[in-house]
Design goal:
Elements: H1 2-14, H2 20-32, H3 43-47, E1 60-66, E2 76-83, E3 90-98, E4 104-111, E5 116-120, H4 121-124, E6 130-137, E7 149-156, E8 162-166, E9 168-170, E10 187-192, E11 200-210, E12 221-228, E13 243-251, E14 256-263, E15 278-279, H5 283-286, E16 292-306, E17 313-319, E18 322-329, E19 332-337, E20 339-344, E21 349-354
Antiparallel strand pairs: 1-6, 1-9, 2-5, 2-7, 3-4, 3-6, 7-8, 10-21, 11-16, 11-20, 12-18, 13-14, 13-16, 14-15, 16-17, 18-19
Length: about 375
């Protein structure tokens, strides 16, 4: 800390002989940072809270992992969603995304002001593992600005991991508007471009994991990562993406190694243990018994998304990521959402949903406003 302080102090004094505006700009860049060397995306936007977060309310909620098993009462997920607005009702269009096929099952939930609801994965989407997206919609089924939703979940997996996850909330940023119906007349598109909705994550961080090698006095650990790139089409679903997760694996002595995993719809269950990442030497040598490590990773691979409401598309060579992690070590078990170091802000991302009028709805009438990722 002393060294860092002297550097800042020295930098401050050197500014005296320069323009005040130049100094302020330099200090701002030093404080916020424009990037993280070796990691793609915007660390600046992430640091300033322009991305998705588990610590705020939103108009869209992502629950990063769920599972259930009809043959085991011990494997299930309990969801909670709350409307914190005291007077306004809202409709939530819920999409269950299968981790194997990216197939979609959807339902509507209606919440009055100050209402909360709880449901089990085994009741609404039994014997499926995946993730859930909850979108605030109006009486016509169009995505709307309603930054009053909160949620969380409790998960027990077939690998005996037990943990709770807060829903990742996406705020709408363009005011009190509904997204227009697309030119096809049956869908609407949400744009995660920092203008309509928050940015999604790009570079993910598993900030610490214990050695997966057991020994006397060091119990065997089992660290899992549940990772996916959000499906861009919640109308038809389906797996239209084949990519690669690129890892930078770090030991606790500041040494760095690289590795890879394949990623399709969702990281396959047989690749979710952290030791599945292919490194040279293997991870159990990089992080031997009694030691710890951490990882940063992002995804490459082609994916075609809508870039406006007319049906125009663009093809991405990189994609946003989301996910969670869980660890069992000795008598301890728990998990949390993966953190992210950078946002996916160039050009942004889009997700299309079907426009279906629900049987219930809010009495609020929203004017429409669209957005775009297409180059002008």
């Amino acid at each position: 800390m002393r060294t860092s302080h002297r550097r800042i102090q020295s930098f401050h004094f050197s500014c005296i002989a320069l323009s005040v505006l130049i100094c302020l700009a330099a200090l701002s860049d030093q404080a916020y940072g424009q990037n993280i060397p070796g990691l793609p995306g915007s660390a600046n936007d992430a640091a300033q809270g322009l991305g998705i977060s588990e610590n705020k309310l939103g108009s869209v909620l992502f629950f990063n992992y769920y599972t259930s098993d009809a043959l085991s009462s011990q494997v299930n997920t309990r969801f909670n969603i709350t409307n914190v607005h005291p007077t306004q009702d809202i409709v939530i269009h819920v999409f269950f995304v299968d981790s194997v096929t990216c197939g979609i099952a959807d339902a509507f939930m209606c919440l009055t002001g100050n209402q909360t609801t709880t449901f089990l994965a085994s009741d609404l989407d039994p014997n499926v593992t995946g993730y859930l997206v909850a979108v605030a919609v109006d009486s016509e089924g169009r995505p709307v600005s309603f930054n009053f939703l909160a949620g969380d979940e409790l998960v027990v997996t077939s690998t005996a991991h037990r943990f709770g996850l807060a829903a990742m909330a996406v705020a709408r940023r363009d005011g009190n508007f509904a997204s227009p119906v697309n030119s096809d007349g049956v869908t609407s598109t949400m744009f995660f471009n920092g203008a309509q909705y928050d940015y999604l994550p790009y570079t993910m961080v598993l900030d610490s994991f214990p050695s997966q090698v057991g020994a006397v006095g060091a119990p065997l650990a089992d660290t899992r990562i549940y990772v996916y790139s959000p499906v861009q089409n919640l109308v038809t679903g389906g797996n239209s993406f084949a990519g690669t997760l690129f890892f930078l694996m770090h030991d606790d002595a500041e040494r760095t190694y690289s590795g890879q995993l394949p990623l399709n719809c969702y990281l396959a269950s047989d690749k979710q243990r952290i030791t599945s990442v292919r490194t040279s030497p293997p991870l159990n040598i990089i992080v031997p018994t009694g030691r710890t490590g951490w990882a940063a990773f992002f995804a490459n691979g082609a994916k075609t998304i809508d870039c406006d409401t007319s049906g125009a598309t663009i093809t991405l060579s990189t994609v946003p990521l989301m996910g969670a992690t869980a660890t069992r070590v000795g008598s301890f078990t728990g998990g949390h959402n993966l953190r992210y170091a950078t946002t996916y802000n160039a050009p942004g991302y889009s997700i299309k949903i079907p426009v279906i009028p629900p049987s219930c709805g809010s009495s609020v009438e929203y004017p429409t406003r669209g957005s775009s990722l297409c180059e002008k």
